[in-house]
Known about the structure:
By secondary structure, the chain is α/β, with parallel strands linked by helices. 58% of the residues lie in helices and 14% in strands. The strands form three sheets. It has an eight-stranded mixed sheet with strand order 7-14-13-8-12-9-11-10, with helices on both faces. The protein has a four-stranded antiparallel sheet with strand order 2-3-1-6. A two-stranded antiparallel ribbon has the order 4-5. The longest helix has 59 residues, at 150-208. The chain is elongated and about 165 Å long.
Amino acid sequence: xxxxxxxxxxxxxxxxxxxxxxMVTSVVAWRYLSMPKEWEGFATxxxxxxxxxxxxxxxxxxxxxxxxxxxxxxxxxxxxxxYTVILSTWRELRDSGRWRPAELIAQNYPTNERDxxxxxxxxxxxxxxxxPNTEYLSVxxxxxxDEENAPQQAQYAMEVLLRKFEEQYNSLNxxxxxxxxxxxxxxxxxxxxxxxRASRNLSEYxxxxxxxxxxxxxxxxxxxxxxxxxxxxxxxxxxxxxVSARLARLEQQFKSxxxxxxxxxxxRVVRTNNLRQQLIQQLxxxxxxxxxxxxxxxxxxxxxxxxxxxxxxxxxxxxxxQAETILDSQSTGVNNLYDNLLREYLTAIxxxxxxxxxxxxxRTQATQMRSRLNGLPLRQREVETxxxxxxxxxxxxxxxxxxxxxxxxxxxELLGGQFIKRIDNAxxxxxxxxxxxxxxxxxxxxxxxxxxxxxxxxxxDQSVYNPTQAAAQLGMPVVASLPRLRRALVARxxxxxxxxxxxxxxxxxxxxxxxxxxxxxxxxxxxxxxxVGRSTVAYNLAVTLARDGVRVVLIDADMRQxxxxxxxxxxxxxxxxxxxxxxxxPEQVVQMTPVEGLVFISAGSAPDNPIRLLHSKRMDDxxxxxxxxxxxxxxxxxxxxxxxxxxxxxxxxxxxxxxxAAGTPVSDSTREFLQRLEHLxxxxxxxxxxxxxxxxxxxxxxxxxxxxxxxALRNGHSAARPALTSGQVETQEPEQTAPRDDQ
Length: 743
């Protein structure tokens, strides 16, 4: 599409661009100007981590650091926007009586739906987003209302949200830190109960057997060894359970694929497939060639059409197997997250195997040592066993006490190692809606989109606007392009220097120059569709030929809706219908006109069957007699797609000028009418493109640019006369204005 074609399209549909742009801009302006004033409570938070968690890495992995930062920000944002936090915030706002949206929700929703509606309302007001290049999150709650209440509501809602968020954050950290300490506490309590029971059993046994001899030195040593071994066995079993739980957690992480694959993609370079682009261009050219062949009126079985279709199919098949992009280069590297998890997993497997072997070894040693007690006397063996159980229970209590202290310290480190820090406390500020910027953007975007819509419509528009398009779609040369002006009829005298008169002079010149191609001197003015201006073209052509010194007979053969007599201000009592019925001779119905050299035969009274009269031998005889006494016979006919009168008259006239109105598509019925004329053997002299827009009329533009002032002075008018506007020409001859433009 050329630049000037682009401008013509915009000129043709400028009103659509104006309407669309004005509507969109007005809606946006009304939307933002009519909105109530808005306030937002805001705060900035960050997750504080201890020095151990934020320790400096000598060789940091950029990918790992970025993933860790993004993950932390996402986790904090998810906690703030979680349903638990939002629900608890909503319930406190609702119960406080200081949250106006709660009153509206209570009025519009039943009791069982209010919490859900309140959560949705709060989510719609909440905005959580990271501050670029920082570890901070910005949290905003928007409230609409007056200046007295809305700011306080926004600030209060933000304070409640931050408090509920911190409570939930601490609760989640406690859920991670508490289980280990609680497990150790339970084991410690059980060990104390075991120690108390063992001490009680030994004391009761000694009370019942006061004569039992105290243990010897070797027996004491054995008991101490058994005690140490049992304590080590208990500690090993606790460690074994801990390592097994960690190994199961790592295996679950591997199965879930949370850390990805061993290799991660570092870079990937792709480029456009140039071969595919070339094939797309070839496909467009092939489709254009196919459409061009069809536009010339060639059928689907025509050799050129078949060749074009085969070319389209061939290029389409080649295009289907081509990818849009081609991989140029790709590099991968080690996934540090995967490697770290793998090392931890392998370490856990090793520690688990070592713990299993240690438990097995200590269990075997304890069994062997206990078997040595069987050699003692019964009462001595029983008292030593009770003493051993008490010692083991005491050692377990001591061990669990130490482990509980360690778990408590770890819990405090975990809880104190990371917490939420408020960078900005809850505050409030008015929301700048940036109305001028939004209106400007709406105007610019709507202008661009409406222009694109106009161009899209132009591509879909099959209407004819200029002679080139008309010749391509009608399949015949265009002998004249007639502008659409308010004054539809040419002047009757020789002083007419208007662009309309110049256009019809081109038409008459083309017709006079086509004598060698005409079959006689009779020309029928016809057209396929109604409202193309056939009667106006017939009248203007006859007047122009007569003004150029040609003897012209103008016949109104439209017996169904005649109009030429009104243009000439003559009578229509007796005319062509009476001649064809044999009631009068042609010489009796001929009427003289104010134009020298032009005579007129009206349509006459409306017959019952015009086709029968036009198809009679009398019609051919009348035309032959008139052709002998004149230079040209111009015949006006009805619409060819509506009645067969046009085809019958064209067959008698043998020469046809086809009138088509600019701005309308060449329909299938029009092509069918032209084919019918060719089948009848009619000589298609050419097409006349009528009602051409001023912007598409080259002759009118040249007239405006070069000749208007000069010709106006020559005609006795002022050169300062206003220019022709809106495609309309001023006139001082009211009788030359067409009564209607539908013929």
